[in-house]
From TrEMBL:
UniProt GO molecular function: GTP binding; metal ion binding; RNA ligase (ATP) activity; RNA ligase (GTP) activity
Keywords, sorted A to Z: GTP-binding, Ligase, Manganese, Metal-binding, Nucleotide-binding
Cofactor(s) needed for function: Mn(2+)
Coiled-coil stretches noted in the UniProt entry, renumbered to this chain: none
Reactions catalysed: a 3'-end 3'-phospho-ribonucleotide-RNA + a 5'-end dephospho-ribonucleoside-RNA + GTP = a ribonucleotidyl-ribonucleotide-RNA + GMP + diphosphate
First-tier enzyme category under EC: ligase
Pfam families: RtcB (PF01139)
EC number(s) from the headed UniProt entry: 6.5.1.8
Name of the protein this chain belongs to: 3'-phosphate/5'-hydroxy nucleic acid ligase
Length: 81
């Protein structure tokens, strides 16, 4: 998954919308943090959250991102009510 990230500005990466994703992913991280083991799983969870109904703008991940149970720890998403 890391190979799909597109740098947008310093410490901001975008995971382009593909497949069932309704919005792109936005990850706030340094390059060195992206190299940590398990980061691919956390990035996949960002993509999974982006498929949820009602999500708006981005499926985001803050610098403390790591794999969680369904939703990545450090993940942020807004939904229409």
């Amino acid at each position: 998954m890391k190979d799909k990230l597109v740098p947008k500005e310093d410490h901001v990466y975008e995971l382009p919308k593909e497949g069932r994703m309704r919005v792109p992913g936005r990850i706030y991280s340094s390059q060195s943090l992206l190299e940590h083991p398990g980061m691919d799983s956390a990035i996949q969870q960002v993509a999974n959250v982006a498929t949820l109904p009602g999500i708006v703008d981005f499926s985001m991940a803050m610098p403390d991102i790591h794999w969680g149970y369904g939703f990545p720890i450090g993940g942020v998403a807004a939904f229409r009510t």
